[in-house]
Specification:
The structure is a homodimer. Chain A is of the alpha/beta class. Chain A has a single domain, classed as Alpha/Beta hydrolase fold, catalytic domain (Rossmann fold), CATH 3.40.50. Helices cover about 35% and strands about 25% of the residues of chain A. The first copy, chain A, is built from seven helices and nine strands. Chain A has a nine-stranded mixed β-sheet with strand order 1-2-3-5-4-6-7-8-9, with helices on both faces. In chain A, helix 1 crosses helix 7. Chains A and B meet through helix 6 and strand 9 of A and helix 6 and strand 9 of B.
Chain lengths: ~240, ~240
């Protein structure tokens, strides 16, 4: 793990890093020492590790909850090279949607393909970040909606260090991993989601095997999560990781 | 309005009253002076104005939010006389369910009938309670689940003083009043509700015309609202009534 830069603002330290070529960012409280809970955040499709939505939430988790937060670019996103295979499939999918095919199953298939890479990448990120003095091997949470949900579900199912997850804006996956999730889940659904059919989101929530899971839904389109969401997520993580 | 008793405990004043024969209870902070937001609570079927679930939440709203809280017995419940008409219909409904009829539409029809009485009764309660010095004409909230939802929906639709409502554990009503509700609603659904089919609860949430409405759902049967619900409701009321 190689640190590329460090930037301090508003009491938050932001460290850009590269882990074997994987570009990432770690946020912690300025001057943080010792072990603390860590939240791994998965960004949305077409976004990147420092997308405004991600960074705003990360800073909220650091400032209000003293969590460490880490995010990395998904293959084909942010500072990663373009990926010919994924690009080709994305282009094909757009053409199939234009030709009248349903978007949702194509998205689910695409996300399952990407998750085969991100699950081991994100596990390696936990390994590396938890070796740092100012993060340590504390409890881990996951936050991800939309693409971050499609990739987050197989990650949370596979990674026993994750003890609680905020997921949402996603439909049932093709890989059956949802039913292997047993940790507490806070699930977000937008009632008027134009990308994920309402029934698909409800089916994903239904499939989670967690005894402690909560569905939160309200009016609004795919990208319009309510303003209160970060504060709700913070309370959720504080309850389960502290 | 005639006060029958006053009981102080843990900093909360509990006043039993009769309003033209309608038995009620008013909770306020001990020593409260002046206008404050008021929450009217509707109890569940077979319960009464001082059922443990109601009283526990009422005391929470008073102690943590300095709200006034009022509850009255629904016809045929608590300290009200038995009601031959309602009793007969309830008995008939039980027989029809035993004979294989669906419970949900029978419940909806029954609740619509009861609501024709409770809506004017509850409006009269607001009139009377808001004339008291230690309550006053502040903003009003409504809290009610199960029967308290079936009766609460037509009440909230009819009563402009109500500015925010917690509802849930209920299905779509037969009277179409849900689509006349426009105030913020916090809606509670139990994912494994054995009394209200999941689709009926989702349909009720869907029918609410409120721009600000949130569905909260989690595993559990009809009566098993999560422990965090009162704290969530308090935050919701504080946001909209303060």
């Amino acid at each position: 793990m190689r640190f590329l830069s460090r930037f301090l603002s508003d009491g938050v330290s932001e460290q850009l890093f590269s882990l074997g070529g994987l570009p990432g960012v770690l946020w912690t409280r300025e001057g943080a020492v010792g072990t603390r809970p860590l939240i791994l955040m998965g960004h949305g499709g077409g976004q990147h590790k420092k997308a405004p939505d991600i960074e705003r939430r990360a800073r909220h988790f650091v400032c209000e909850g003293d969590f460490a937060v880490v995010a990395v670019d998904v293959p084909g996103h942010g500072d990663r090279p373009t990926d010919d295979v994924l690009d080709r499939i994305a282009t094909e999918n757009r053409a199939r949607v234009d030709a009248g095919e349903d978007l949702a199953p194509l998205v689910a298939g695409f996300q399952a393909l990407v998750a085969r890479r991100t699950v081991p990448e994100w596990r390696a990120v936990l390994d590396a970040v938890q070796r740092l003095d100012h993060v340590g091997a504390g409890p881990v949470g996951y936050w991800g909606v939309s693409l971050g949900c499609g990739l987050g579900v197989p990650f949370v199912a596979a990674e026993p260090r994750v003890r609680a997850a905020v997921l949402g804006l996603g439909g049932l996956l093709v890989d059956g991993t949802a039913s292997r999730i047993t940790v507490p889940v806070d699930f977000r659904l937008q009632w008027d989601d134009e990308r994920v059919p309402r029934a698909d989101g409800l089916a994903l929530f239904d499939a989670l095997a967690s005894a402690d899971k909560t569905l939160h839904a309200g009016p609004g389109r795919h990208a319009d999560l309510p303003e209160l969401e970060p504060a709700d997520s913070l309370r959720f993580f504080a309850r389960h990781l502290r």
